[in-house]
Predict the structure.
Amino acid sequence: MDMLINGTAAPAADESWIDVKNPATGEYIDHVPRGSVADVDAAVDAAEDAFGSWSEKTMRDRGLILSRAADLVRRDHKDLAHLLTREQGKPLRESIDEVRGCANILEYYASIAGQPAGEAVHLGKAGDCLVTRVPLGVCGAIIPWNMPVIIMGWKVGPALLAGNTLVLKPASTTPLTNLRIGRLFLEAGLPAGALNIVTGPGESVGEALVRQARVKKISFTGNCETGHKIQKIAGDQLKALTLELGGSDPMIVMADADIPKAVEGALRGRFYNAGQVCTAVKRLYLHEQIAPEFMHLITVKVEAMKIGNGLLPETDMGPLNSQSQRDRITTVVTDINDREEGKILTGGSPVTGNDYANGFFYQPTLISDVSPDAAVLKKEIFGPVLPMVTVPDLRTAIREANRSRYGLGASVWTRDLSTVKEVFQNVHAGIIWVNRHLTIPPEVPFGGTNESGIGRENGFHALDSYTQTKTLFLGW
Ligand code: NAD
C-alpha cells in the first residue's frame, strides 16, 4: 500500500511530488508522490495478490474489519477533520460531519454483512438453482476533492465487504485525509494489498487505472466530461462502471411552504462546503406569491454569513478549493452580468482584504430575476452562487426543473401531498427530497439519471454493483 505522507516542513523539491496547500491561507501542508503508470500497475499487482485470501474470508469477517476501521475513524475524528479542513477548506464542523459520515457508512456495511445475498430457485423436476454473489476482483475508485472522505467511504465500504480488493486514486488537492484513513484500515487488520492508494494527476494516474485491463470495475465520482472519457475507455474493455457525475439540483418552493424553514434549507443546500457539493441547490424556483418574502429573508441571512478560514469556530463558509475553482465561479458571475441574465442581490465577487489575500474566497452570491432561459441555469454552478427564478405555478416549476442535462437530486418545499406526488412523478432525478435537501443516508441508494451518471452508491444497490451472480444448477 502506497501511503507515504512526508510530514516534512518543506515543499517538495522536484516534480516527482505534489505539494498540498491550504486553500484558505496558501500554507504548505505536505507533499505526496506524483504517481506513474508503473505505480498503478504495482498497486494492481498488490491488489491481485491480496484478492484470493480477502475474497475467501467470510463476509462477516470482512465486516468485522470494516467495523474496526469505523471505530478508528471515530477515535481519530478530530485529527482527521482538522486535516480535511486544512487541505479542503470547509469549516471544521462540516469536516467533522463528513468524517463521522465516513465512519457511519463503514459501520453500515459492516452491519449488513452476513445478510442473505443470494437466492434459491426451485425449477420443479428439472432441479434447483443456487444463485450466489461473488466479488468482481480488483476494482478501481477515483474520487474528487469536494467530499473526499465520505466518498471514500461510499466506495471502499461496499467494495471491500463484497470481497473485492481496491486501488483508490484521490484528488490531487485533497489526498492527505484519504491516506490517513487508509492507514487506519491497516490498523483495523485489513491485509496489505486489499486497499491501495495511488496519488497523482487524473490524466495520467486516473486514466491508467481505468485503462488497466486487470481492473474489473471503476467507480468514479467527478465531473461529466471526465465521466464521458472514462466510459469510452471502459466500454472498449467491457469494464463495469459506476459514474457519479455532476448535478444541477432544482429546489422548488411553493406558496404553502414553511418559508423560514425553506430559507434555512436553501442556505444549507447552496452554501454548505462553499457550494461545492454535487447535490447542492443549484437552481431555486420560487412561487411568485412568496418570492419577495423569501428573497428578503435569504438576503439578510447571506449577508450575515462569516467567511473565513475553516479552522476558525465562527466561520460559516470557507474558501473554494483551488484557484481554478474560483476562476470558474468568477466567470459564471461575469457571464450573468454581461448577458444581463439576472440581478445580483448580494455578493458577486471574490472576498478581498488582508485576511483573505492568500486564499480562494468568494462571496456567497444571490442572483434574482433570472429568466428561465438564462444560460447560467444550463450549467452546473460548483460554488456559492444561487440563481433564483420566480414561477407562477407548480406546472411551470416542474417544466423548468426538468430543463437540465442533469438529474441528480431535487427538492420540493410544501405542505401539500398532491404537490409532492406531482413532483415525485414528474421531476427527473435520482432522489426527491420533501422539505429538506442534501441528506444522503448510507442505507438509501444514491445516484443520478441523465448526465448525472449511471449506477448507485450506498445501500444494497452499491453492494450488488461490486458483485456478479454465479449460479449452481442442480439437476436432480
Ligand atoms: P474531475 O472529474 O476533474 O476529477 C475527479 C477525479 O477524477 C480526480 O481524482 C481527478 O484526478 C480524476 N481524473 C481527472 N481526469 C481524469 C481522467 N481523464 N481519467 C481518470 N481520472 C481522472 O472532477 P472535479 O471537477 O474535480 O469534481 C467536481 C465534480 O464532481 C462536480 O461536477 C460534482 O458535481 C461531481 N461530484 C459528483 C458527486 C456524485 O455523487 N454524483 C459527488 C461529488 C462530486
User: Anything to note?
Assistant: Residues 92-112 form the longest helix (21 residues). DSSP finds 14 helices and 18 strands in the chain. The CA atoms of residues 50 and 378 lie 45 Å apart.
